[in-house]
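Here is one such tokenized protein:
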Amino acid sequence: MILGVNHVSMSVPDLGRAIHFYCDLLGFKKLDRASWKSGTSMSRTAGKILTVDGTAADAIQVSGPNLLLEFFQFKEGNPKPQDPERPVIDHGITHICLAVTDVDSEFARLKAAGVKFLSEPVTIAPGLRTVYGRDPFGNIVEFEQATGRTDATESALRTVKGRLSMLALGVVFLAIFGAFFLWQTPSLWRGPLTPSDMDRYAAELQKNVVQPPEVKANFIARVRAWAATDDGKPVLMVNMMRFRDKLGELPPDIKFKGTPHEANAYYESLVAPLAIKRGEYPMIGGAAQAKSLLASDTGLEQLDRVVVMRAPSRRAFIEFMADPAYGPTVPIKHAATDVILIPIDSDMVIPDLRWIVGGLLLIFYLLIRWRRAERALRNATRPA
């Protein structure tokens, strides 16, 4: 089983120049050195490996952040020189690649030190730039910058694809949030209700809402008065309910038997999809724990359930009530409860502070962890 790459080896005519280039200029660390003379047991062992008899050599290994290089200067064995200007496309191992964080600064630094380059740094793709240079013996060394790469062993194409995919994902998420924000803030793209709008909605309410004529007329008149001052902004609907002692009479076409509590739960299950369709959702709701803690002669001391709904606008809530599917559910609600429906402004809405504090602490914790991990990675990849 192959575990991975251990080292890359080169035969060079001058070990000192190799050490100067790779260690002094590129920052590799000198590790183990070795040498052998012709006629020794090491020379005979090398002959078995290299299939060349009578060699003598000096050798050294140098290490970079994730690369081990090995150099041999053969003094005997008749090593043949290579063309120091050979084209990169010739057959054989063409180059080694070093990942860098800033290819332009490395290019300027090494060029000032006398390193020969084949060209100026070239942009291959967004965030991917590279340049080829030669070591003192003509071996090609590539210096490659892939923006966002944290692991030097990761391929540049994968880094670029990862950046582009994250960018695309960010654009998708931003588009989703933008669409959701516009859906929940119709004042940005739909104006307040006009008299002609209300005439149309009143006709739909008259047609679809199932109520006694006088009750329906009063209801529509109140909706008209409320709509007349529409500012297009979100609205909170406060539902204050008191359950009846027993379920009131229902129209013949509504086949339901149960307690007022069960009828109200049935009503809420029917209207929930209609509300969500128009961006309405409950912000808070629950059963009353006790009578009003303040004495009152208004008859409102005993409430059984309170629900606060958020609607994106008055238009959205009126469209909800004018929906043909909503109108027939009204008798169920009134058979189960006495209800007061009060629209209020959403000027002050404070979510549960436990989630706010917990969320902020989690964000700070993750930021600290991220900064520490980034610092550790930077220190680990910094040349010695």
The radius of gyration is 39 Å. The mean pLDDT is 89. The CA atoms of residues 238 and 364 lie 36 Å apart.
